[in-house]
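Subject: mismatched residue count in predicted assembly?

I count 750 residues in my input, but I want to confirm that the predicted structure covers every chain. Input:
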Amino acid sequence: MRVVVIGAGVIGLSTALCIHERYHSVLQSLDVKVYAERFTPLTNTDVAAGLWQPYLSEPSNPQEAHWNQQTFNYLLSHIGSPNAADMGLAPVSGYNLFHEVVPDPYWKDVVLGFRKLTPRELDMFPDYSYGWFNTSLILEGRKYLQWLTERLTERGVKFLLRKVESFEEVARGGADVIINCTGVWAGALQPDPLLQPGRGQIIKVDAPWMKHFIITHDPERGIYKSPYIIPGIQAVTLGGIFQLGNWSETNNIQDHNTIWEGCCRLEPTLKDAKIVSECTGFRPVRPQVRLEREELHVGSSNTEVIHNYGHGGYGLTIHWGCALEVAKIFGKILEERNLLRMPPSHL
Amino acid sequence: MERAGSWTGSPLIYHAYKSVGEIPDLWQDRGFVNQKEKRGLPSMDRLPGDQQSCSSTDEMRPMDTVRIAAVGAGVVGLSTAVCISKLVPRCSITVISDQFTPETTSDVAAGMLIPPVYPDTPIHKQKQWFKETFDHLFAIANSAEAEDAGVLLVSGWQIFRSIPTEEVPFWADVVLGFRKMTEDELKKFPQHVFGQAFTTLKCEGPAYLPWLEKRLKGSGGLILTRRVEDLWELHPSFDIVVNCSGLGSRQLAGDPKIFPVRGQVLKVQAPWVKHFIRDGSGLTYIYPGISNVTLGGTRQKGDWNLSPDAEISKGILSRCCALEPSLHGACDIREKVGLRPTRPGVRLEKELLAQGSRRLPVVHHYGHGSGGIAMHWGTALEAARLVSECAQALRTPAPKSKL
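Triage response: the counts match. Full output below for your records.
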């Protein structure tokens, strides 16, 4: 059974790992390869701040809420392991701030210790009048991708730097199942009018006194268009840019100023923080994640494609739930082809 | 290995700053202070602040500058000096110490604002001191000075192996967002059955003390390096002495009630730790700071030993890793020791020293134990009020008022 995963961001690598963990012992032979044009530190995952937090409103596909929760619980189970920091994983608490009273988010019981902010806490943020406090998790993109790469390498999964032009090309190369984790560039392999880039720009600073995340919300402007401050393991990510349809990969000076002014207004202590780096990334925005199977007829054989892309600004938040779902679909494919030696133990 | 709070040894750096007018020549040349200097000051030696020679400190005209000396340059000495410079009109304030940051006990302390217990002090007083300190530092934490002053907000958990008698401590409404931990949160600590979650402040000595020194200098205060062996050495150069000498008060105030409680800690690199964790007994704790994480600790009564003990360090690391396994990856581990200046209650009172016809008003301000940083500003405000009363009394013309 030859599996090719296209894409080496968090979605590609975690899906590869999930499949390998679950099926390598129940298949006669499982060969997994990862093809990608960009590997860490050049993926969009590397730009992400890495805070586990879904969007505030309920997803149009209720399965996504379930996948978010599965991901949180999976990550939480690694807290308490000596290796958590190697994964880029750590608990982090912080503030979500609003200009008016809003309903509690659907994930309030997934995170830990969710509560409303007290008046004295709100005093710290004079521009805001309402908010939440909770404990969540940081999963730093770069560190996590390095960790995933190590786990996959240990398992004999091969990585190939390749620009894939079509699914057919990969199928003709001998792949039985293709997992399409191409993120924001999925349109190049198969046109998808629902998929758009949600360009983001972030500034990483040295501000080790910041132990909390602070995320502001402005319903008029939309998600990620309001300043946010998210501490990582070493540096602190400052952001607040979301531009639909903008493919510009270079850092923009106006965006820099928007982020800097917004975050310094929110947190005056940042004014002297040293800038470590600045980057641009593209959230793969879609009304909902495309996670489904598609049969490809190449010559006389059938190649299965499992699509897993379009995770918007919540890729790290939802990744493991989606990986599990892909693994389930993969399991079905194996059953259909009578390839399973024994029932898979993990499903 | 670094030693903090040491009373002997290392060469001292000349810290005196000019304020108004010239420092007498005698002092300008001094690079090192000779510790074996004779007790008291010979009549030739004049300390900065001697702007006019008074024949006797008992006679003071209302417009005279009151010369105040603060003994001790830890968090208590420096904050008291700053409060005095703001509160007492027409005074000069000089901080005198043989130890300065980063060699004081305040530099070893993690600086978490979690109050200690003072059995001899009424709860409402402890709460007042804690609240005043919290409010003072909270304002700094939310200002652009936070990094310079070494003050930051930290959230975390205090966890207990059995349900404590007091589930809600007196300071619960001073810290932010105080609440009981949820069942899900407690799962992280399988050996613990109860916990409190809250957000508090951390105030780090190595940044805060220099910040206080700058503030003091800015309002004309002086800083002098000198080992004071006897409070009378400061007479007649100073009109009032504030004694913030911590453990030094055993000698300087002849106080047998003050004793060290030795604390050993590790300062490590573990930047992924964003929360504090404190075991309810207070013996084991993990306090993330600006540039390191403090792991502790010990409480060794009557132990004056300032050298770190390797076995104890192993024990601390092991206890902390049990609470936070990711600490196995901590590196750059540095051992530190501090001697908490412990007393049943903080000594905050006036005393008029008398020797023959000489009089020296003293305000004692020491004995904060494990609560130096947590309580410093509240007690400093009170000490400054006491000093103000002394100054008032000195300025009040005859009949001579009793202090």
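The two ends of chain A are 19 Å apart (CA to CA). Marking this ticket as 'not a bug'.
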